[in-house]
Amino acid sequence: MNTVHLLLIIKNIQRLPELPKPYEMMRFVINSYGDSSVNARFWFYDLQGNELASLERSWPADYLKVHFTYAQYNKKMLVYPTTIQNIQVDKKRQAHGTDLRPFVQTKTYASAPRSADENTASEKALRSLEAFILHKNIFKKLFFSFRPFFLDDLSLSLERAERGRIYSLYFENGRVYVQ
Predict the structure, then answer these.
(1) CB count, 10 Å around CB of 53?
(2) Adjacent-strand bridge partners of 84
């Protein structure tokens, strides 16, 4: 059964569209820093550069950190921002953060250009990979042993972000950077 799961993961990753280089997946602005609080707005984008969703709120934090998970096989990649974590310097234990999956899953790669006959297979592959990457349902147990072979996690601290400036977060060649 594990071989079947492994082959399914590989097959699904191979069906993915190419990521734009670089891929601008998010923008953000820090609206204010207060007494142990950060107010920020985030915008999320699909592969075509269309805005998918936005999130604006205040976090009890000294600064924010964004976490990402990406799948890679050969030159194909799939990347998702997964969490905005609120970091409080004086706390030993940090909060889990804000889950970004509802803002990005299914929508991010749905707009990728495909032929009509490729659309159904690509959609099924995408849903399967999202379950694998984002830990959904039974896939967590079925594919868990393969996570280290295909997935990597990245974090990006927004600690030095200036208030009022709009930043873009890009993903390219397995790394995330800010401009």
Answers:
(1) 13
(2) 66, 98
